[in-house]
Amino acid sequence: AGNLYVHARRGKSETTVRYDPSGRLTVRYEINPLMAGGHPFGVDEDGNLYALIADNIVQFDRNGKFVKSIAVFGTSNAGVVTAEDLRNDRYPSNHGPDQRDEVLRQIHPCYSQWETAMVGDTIYFIAEGPNSTACGQNHVLASLTLDGRAQILDKVNSASGVIRGPDGNLYMRERGKNE
Fold first, then answer.
1. Is 57 helix (H, G, I), strand (E, B) or coil?
2. In the 8-state DSSP scheme, what is residue 75?
3. Rg, the chain, Cα only
4. Rounded CA separation 42/131 (Å)
């Protein structure tokens, strides 16, 4: 608790790191710089980090080691990220049949809205919804469980992220509303 997770860019290199409450760098995550991503998406009670990499939500253990891909979003041809992809600095290729459910094919986390909330085994986030052609056009509040099931919870108007308040409730801000 109290750790800060940051996706950092230095020159052409990108990485995700964890700082402890004193500001000391404690973990550098194994993220392939060619995959452009690694944006923190959630942290579970065991300290595992979930990050968006190459259209995948991937799990890293508390020491920064890649564990597995949880889900693949969108209509892109990106495959499931494997440990071999990370070791060999290659973008994921299609590995077997498409395992995405209908919701995962229709949505993609919004790149301009990184505030997410993790409650138990579920990550809540703002996504580009079905038939979206530009960021901000068709936002939805979505959830993803750690076993890879996604759900569209509600259509929202240009929301700017989801946070979990000190009271345990989820909050999001929509343009033009004070919610």
1. strand
2. S
3. 16
4. 26
